[in-house]
Specification:
alpha/beta; Metallo-beta-lactamase, Chain A; four-stranded mixed β-sheet
């Protein structure tokens, strides 16, 4: 029940949080530029290995702050699905910015849901698109009671996001999209 995004920017395709089996898609995917992982929980990386087998030249970006999660079924929460899943995929820490030809992606550390949670900010024709993973949802925020979670850190991450332009689009890891303005107005976790 998590969101996976196929985000096209300037003819480049980014798969954000590869949680859907590529064999179930109803469209042909000719090429993937990169895989962007917001955090290392099972429900967001469930099919990253299968996607990467299909597109081995596309790099995988995930914060090294979540390295411990992918090698531990308790930490990555795969046990919640009744399985033990350990991951072994090559990834690179995204740093602060990623460059793909004409496409720039700002990487925003937003620890709290996990220690390595990040948001990915794309800007296109004056419109900003923020992929928040489980940091911010429409009307809520991610849990902090799982391994690596910290409500104090999450509050700081939410405070950072609240400073972004109100028209900025938010695409969360679960549920519908929103804007920063809507969350500042209606999300109780954005209240000081």
């Amino acid at each position: 029940m998590s969101n996976m995004y196929l985000a096209y920017f300037d003819n480049d395709l980014f798969v954000i949080d590869p949680s859907v089996d590529p064999d179930t898609l109803d469209r042909e995917i000719p090429q993937v530029t990169a895989f962007l992982i917001t955090h290392g929980h099972y429900d967001h990386i469930k099919y990253v290995e299968k996607w990467h087998q299909r597109f081995p030249d596309a790099p995988i970006y995930m914060s090294s702050g979540d390295a411990a999660l992918i090698a531990d079924a308790r930490a990555n929460c795969s046990f919640m699905d009744g399985i033990v899943k350990l991951f072994d995929f090559p990834y690179e820490d995204p740093g602060e910015n990623l460059e793909f030809g004409c496409v720039s992606v700002k990487v925003i550390p937003t620890p709290g849901h996990t220690m390595g949670s990040v948001c990915y900010l794309f800007s296109e024709n004056g419109t900003d698109h923020l992929f928040t993973g489980d940091t911010v949802f429409e009307g809520s925020v991610g849990r902090t009671d799982m391994p690596g979670g910290s409500f104090e850190l999450l509050k700081r991450s939410v405070a950072l996001i609240s400073t972004f332009p109100p028209e900025m689009h938010i695409y969360p890891g679960h549920g519908p999209d929103s804007t920063v303005g809507n969350e500042v107005r209606y999300n109780p976790f954005f209240v000081n």
